[in-house]
Design brief:
The chain is α/β, with parallel strands linked by helices. It is 38% helix and 22% strand. Strands 6-7-8-3-9-10 form a six-stranded mixed sheet. The N and C termini lie far apart (49 Å). The model has no long low-confidence stretch (mean pLDDT 94). The structure holds adenosine-5'-diphosphate and magnesium ion (MG).
Length: 286
């Protein structure tokens, strides 16, 4: 099960007849249903969002097949399984998901997708309230119009709507983009907590290599519509591949380089955030 791409290409039409943009070029990729935290990285236009949109059949392949939790998605629209079932299993947090809010109240917005996927009113409400608590959305906000909230609060409400129907796999397209650092940390910590406690697979698109290095266990690098790296993050940032793909080095690794080069440390790259690095520095001075 999980998500599996077999020789998938995707072409977008352009303004010229018979001229296409190749956004995915012969992609082969297997992601397990459980316990993966995959980061999709690469420069703008490399195909990350297009790839992710194939993971819950928002886009159909131009050629090849995508197996989403056992449902086989092919280029032929009418041959495909019920896409609603697929989308219930794989939740998608779009870039700027707050643009999709539209209900009269925050609570109704959080309940919307659950009801759409067949939950009864009461169940949808119970799940919405649970999720709101998890995301620290105050009770008094629930009766307000989502349009009266701050940007960070709107983002949380939009994310709550996805989490409330409990999809098996979560797709996140730059979920913290444009948020203040505190809300961004809160949201990423929550996704990580969900990953750790429920073992749900999470697939994250991010330009923030600090986030990628902190949370992901596997990194897939796209360049010009192709996968050019798929594997371990330590290995990626120890090789020239990250630079060739215009990825910046995580801050924690820059600090490690500095300590090794100028302060006679001999740290390896198996340190994933500043807290862990501090512990090593303290140890060094003991
Ligand atoms: N809706 C669309 N119509 C036409 N071309 C598109 C569309 N979306 C993306 N593209 C093109 O497909 C390529 C990959 O885009 P995208 O998947 O958005 O990359 P990324 O998310 O890595 O920035 C780019 O060349 C982009 O211009
Ligand atoms: Mg994108």
């Amino acid at each position: 099960m999980g998500i599996s791409f077999k020789e998938v290409s995707h072409l977008y039409p352009t303004s010229k007849r018979k001229v296409f943009t190749v956004a995915l070029d012969n992609i082969n990729l297997n992601i397990n249903e459980k316990d993966e935290f995959v980061a999709l990285v690469g420069k703008t236009g490399s195909g990350k969002s297009t790839l992710m949109e194939h993971m819950n059949a928002l886009l159909l392949p131009s050629s090849g097949t995508v197996d989403i939790m056992g449902s086989i998605i092919t280029p032929k629209k009418n041959k495909n399984p019920k896409l609603k079932d697929v989308r219930k299993k794989v939740g998608f947090v779009f870039q700027f998901p707050e643009y999709q809010l539209f209900e009269e109240t925050v609570l109704k917005d959080i309940m919307f997708a659950g009801k759409n996927f067949g939950m009864k009113e009461e169940e949808a409400k119970t799940k919405a309230l649970e999720t709101a608590r998890l995301l620290k959305i105050d009770d008094d906000l629930l009766k307000k119009s989502p349009f009266n909230l701050s940007g960070g609060q709107m983002r949380k409400v939009a994310i709550a709507g996805i989490l409330a129907y409990n999809p098996d796999i979560l797709l996140l397209d730059e979920p913290t983009r444009g948020l203040d650092p505190k809300t961004a940390d809160e949201i990423m910590d929550l996704f990580y907590e969900i990953h750790k406690t429920t073992h749900k697979t999470i697939i994250l698109i991010s330009h923030d290599m600090d986030l990628v290095y902190k949370y992901a266990t596997r990194v897939v690098v796209l360049n010009s519509s192709k996968i050019v790296y798929d594997g371990d993050k330590v290995n990626l940032f120890s090789s020239p591949i990250y630079e060739e793909n215009h990825l910046s080095k995580p801050e924690v690794l820059k600090m490690i380089d500095y300590l090794n080069e100028t302060q006679e440390y001999s740290l390896n790259y198996n340190i994933f955030n500043e807290q862990e690095l501090l512990e090593q520095v303290v140890k060094h001075h003991e």
